[in-house]
Amino acid sequence: MKIGMSHGAGGEVMGNLISETILKNISKKSVNGGIGLNALDDGATIPLGDIEIVVTTDGHTINPLFFPGGNIGRISAAGTINDIAVMGAKPLAITNGMIIKEGFDIDDLDVIIKSMNETCEEVDVGVIAGDTKVMEQDKLDGLVMVTSGLGIVQKGKAIRDSSLEVGDKIIISGSVGDHGMSLMAFRKGFEFETDLKSDVAPVWGVVSRSLDVGGVTAMKDPTRGGLANAINEMAKKSDVGVMLHDDLIPVKEEVKAVSDMLGIDPYDVANEGKVVMGVKSESANDVLKAIRKDRYGHDAEIIGEVVEGSRVLVETPVGGTRILESPIADPVPRVC
Ligand code: MG
Fold this sequence. Notes:
336 residues; alpha+beta; CATH 3.30.1330.10; Phosphoribosyl-aminoimidazole Synthetase, Chain A, domain 2; 2 domains; seven-stranded mixed β-sheet; 28% helix; globular; binds magnesium ion
């Protein structure tokens, strides 16, 4: 069997590749009893004394490199920072490895690195190591970036994606589908492309405000495969069901329009500046208020609750329910 695009699209097909070809061939998957590769969480941890170092790594193959609302530099920084943040850890630094195509415009690279830097500055993250390689014209599509992230959390305080509890409220920090749908509209050249922008942003502010309030049980950033993939993964790993409410899930009008036109569910589409979290019912309103004070959390909503069972259900405005499955693969390829 050969690799297909869906093997990198964040759905079931990629999941199978990871378990069958990657996890099976690695023997030591965690260090010092920390959260390791087997957990397939947003990041891993290495406990050291009173703290845990949180690490993550991320490859970026987004097409196109410049898109409405950002570029590969911003998404590299934000994507990595966000995987650290949703572990409940303060992001400290990233590293940046670049593979650049021969003939790539240095002015474009300058803009990309400036964006990466600005994104890091927003949350006081350093870029502390890197690597630069060049490949021949016909061997590579522009630029590939590989970033790793480092963060820190008090020992035992890392937030998992597998610890939802029955009764928790589900909060999303803003509208869903903006990133994937803006990319799709931009690629297709729709007229209203100008209104639609990626949400790409670092979410440490949203996360730290929530942690300050307390009661957060589980977190994930809904990137490839969107909200549908993230919430299904959280429910499955936590061995619970989730009931969401269609009319409470924020979706921008333009995103709805593009979704309808293309027949793609915005719940299946990547976000790059959002957090899905489980929060204890009694803390949910306070956490929501705190998130809404953040520049990237104004549109946050409580969109459902954790229930007994094993499925993610969505209650429709007419009173019916449907099952929300993980997409087989993100419907928008090369989205991050
Ligand atoms: Mg993640």
